[in-house]
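Dear colleague,

Following up on yesterday's call, I've attached the two folding results inline so they're easy to grep. Please treat them as preliminary; we haven't cross-checked anything against experimental data yet. The first protein's sequence and structure tokens come first.
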Amino acid sequence: MLQLRHAIICLLCGYLSKTTAFPSIPSNIDWKAGVELLGSFEWPKITLPTKRETAPNGSTILWVIQDTYEGSTFFDTFNFYTGADPTNGLVTFVDQQTAFNDGLASITSDNKVIMRGDNTTQLAYGVNRNSVRIASQAEYNMGLFILDLDMAPWGCGVWPAFWTLGSGTWPYNGEIDIIEGVHDNEHNQVTWHTAPGCNLTQNTNFTGTIVQTNGTDNLQCNAFINNNAGCGVTEWSQASYGPYFDEANGGVFAMNWDENGIAVWSFYRATVPLDITQGRPNPSNWGEPVAALSTQSCNITHYFANHSIVFDITFCGDWAGNSYATSGCPGTCEDILMDPANFVNASWIINSLSVYKQSWLDIVSTSSATRTHPIMNLKTCWIISTVIFLHLLVSL
């Protein structure tokens, strides 16, 4: 009778070893050995993060990969922009074939993505310099965007940006500038441009400094005032843009955009969180962001929608051109544009761009959300109940 009890228990354990709750239990265990063998079995250890984001309903938020842009397929899902520069730059954006033919876009043998401004052609005064601007074919409404790069463009007269842009009439679906700077600045600037009514909140927790005009914080993201300054935050780190960032072998920029706000982090190479490198990002463990736009003064879902991802390298223009005289760079922006040697650092070198979407861990709900304990489904509970009943019956 004792052997029958053991057989019933072991049959149950054999069934459970094939469920997703216990994927690592060896399938070749001699279940006839009974509970003695089970008693010596060491269950797999699961290490949970020390902190996880939680949704308003109490569920744990996980970020799962949605799109990956890298290597030989990077440009397959981007479109090359060839129109006039909306920021009045002294630049001509070329099409994809021209970009590849002229070396302005390429993939290296070790799968690094290169985009650069023309750094080989001597120009006459007043002639635009060729460059690249691309936009993703996919559009996004919220997500976690993580860019890993070895180099971002910089140099006198150079104005690069990594940003997202809402479709339709600008700026009514918003613009988020994640990486942006001019000349050889050392501090990255994160900026939001929107329709009137979205504002930056001063008491939001972030480590950067709010951009000012005439000593006053630019809190209104309204693109129709302050010469389209938007609401910007300058990062504290001198390695977040320019030569120091590149000397440190680049790093990672991350933007978390959801209904609770939009936050940006940057990490130079030596400080990239392990959860990012392992493909399991967890913003809750990254500390305060360098910049954040909260829902306290901006309805995120109202002002930001249908965003494509954009990379570009502009020369001179509204920001780099207008700030040139105080930049410490020689001559004028038009002068420096002529010599290709001035643009040897005007390059993006990208390892990967990953876009994650939210998923939820819910151990109570029977919805389609991910569950931590599949053993608790109805079918398995029925089997357990049956085994208990049989165990009692045999005991009689």
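Below is the second protein, in the same order (sequence, then structure):
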Amino acid sequence: MLLLTILSTCVALAIAQDCSTPAGTRASFGAYLQCIKEGLDADYGNYENEIREHSKKAAATCFASSIEEGNQKDRCVLAASDLSHVAWDKNGPLRECSICRTFASGAIKAIKATPAEDQKCIRTEVSKAIAREASYCLQKKIPNFAGVPEIPDLEEGSFQYKDSVISSISDHILIQSRLSFCGERKPQRAASTRACLASPFVGFLSGHCKVLASCDAKFTGQCGQTIPATRKATCECITEARDDLKKRIGSIANVFNDLLSGGRGLAIGSANKVDICTSQIKKQMITPVNDWVNVIDTALSSCIRNKPAGQNLAMEALLNVGCRKVIADTTGAATSQLKTGFDFVNNLIDAMVQRSGRFCGGSHCLQG
């Protein structure tokens, strides 16, 4: 039995080390991602603490703590106390949008109440969509690319540490919101602060970097060059997909503005104005390989077994409510509030992509 186990392991390693063909490279990259997952699973709690603690330290390092210091160092301002509350409370970026706070708080409660199996199911469905985006992008970067392998669930250990995960996501949203606010007024300060955050101090996420280095060392020969190059290209594509999706979500505010001004054929008094508004927003969320509204709705409907009574979790339903509010509002406040809400969603996406990109590493892994 032991001999069979050793032989099967050797065969698996031989397959994983084949980078001479597109299919072999795909399988090897899948083994590489599985190596990272196993490394994270071995001590998930400490890696989660590293993300949260290093994120706070990075903010303290790269932001100024006061306006005076910001003027001296040409940095955006974020005091340590700003990270002492969650991103969806009354003092956060949603402070001027009460309906946004209600929705965000409800979503967090729903996440905490969702069983581990249901959360894993949702992550799996979304990771498939991310893989489709990455594959579409990589086909243009790598000749004869065989496709992204199944992405292992790097967050499988997160359920036990969900409070810590939510805390780190909140910090990321607050940091990104402050960067956006700063960038609208002082673009150069935002750029220098953002550059600092990419590699804020020696030893940043060093635990994660060691996992990557350990998995890198397991691939030699042709794979020793091909796998890092594939990882780099994949991470570039995931970033491009994230930026594209953020632009799409950011442009939703333009749909509301066009709606109020009569643009895009949305004539004042149109009987189906809400349907047209919802349809236009959904179009913004369609890429060459994904309909993101459908991706999210399908994941929620198929994965959540015990749905909250009287609540419609569908994205399309939420868009419908948003369109109705904008159409009924005559002050412009609803449009402003919904923009705030979509900005929040954008920063939430950033937080999730940062977590899913744990296998990407970066310049900080080359320090110290």
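For the second protein, one point worth flagging: The chain has one domain: 8-362.

Best wishes,
A.L.
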